[in-house]
Amino acid sequence: MAGMAKASKTSTITEMISDKKLVELTKHGDKAAFSELVLRHQQPLLRLSLRFVKDLDLAKDITQESFIKAYERISSFEERASFKSWLFQIAINTAKNKLRGKKQDHKDVDEIQIGVAAVAEQGLVQNAVSHLLQKLVEELPEKQKTALKLRIYEDLSFKEIAEIMKCPYDTAKANYRHALLKLKETVQKESELNEKTTQNWVGVRINVMQLEEVDL
Amino acid sequence: MNMKDEKWWLLKSELLFEEELKKRLRSVDPGKIDVSETFFTKIHQEVMAKIDLLPPSENKKIQNKKSANEKQIKI
Asked: Which of A62, A137, A199, B30 sits CB 3.0–4.6 Å from A49 for a disulfide?
């Protein structure tokens, strides 16, 4: 019991140490400090990687590689950004490298279209619309896509996004805004197209109707 | 609608679009999966094992670079 209490106390103390301090300790060769950084950031890093590659095994590889790269380069980390931003930057670059040459899977939209035609349940249709939006995000230019994913999924500030993307604050903000406007335009175009054609794509039509409710 | 109203309306509609987009994309977030604690334990163990396997020079390099930087600052 006393041992457990001691272990719990140690763990609480470790949790209280800032990333900055742990980085400093790692720079002095303290592997235990880096171990704590891995424990602290492995979940968000895996989720981030999954958002870029959509494959658990690949995301796991990216997460591990990113930590090892971070460890190897820790002495060059100048701490202008937070450790988390720096780590995210490494992971995004690693994910991009992994994806380069590996053709992305584009089957989802066709599958969704068939699925949507076959089902009338609102829940499933809404899910198809969300998948369509997800596909539209994947088609965005690289920088806009990265800015949008970091903002939408990670809820990061533009300052953090700029740090990760190694660009000025205004550029990060502009990339995000352009992505948003492009998506909005695409959704509007899809709606106009669907108004004109006799072939209904249920998903898009419902999407447009719902988005109209929010004064698009 | 005057210019000021129009601008405000546009901004409002963009914000609402952003909210709707957030809601929809998060509902199909590929990063939102249930992964067991064991999975993360394995990631952690493997990372630390690989770090231990790094050539000693790599670990030494980390410390040397740090000392070199410190010396440079002192100069």
From this structure: A62
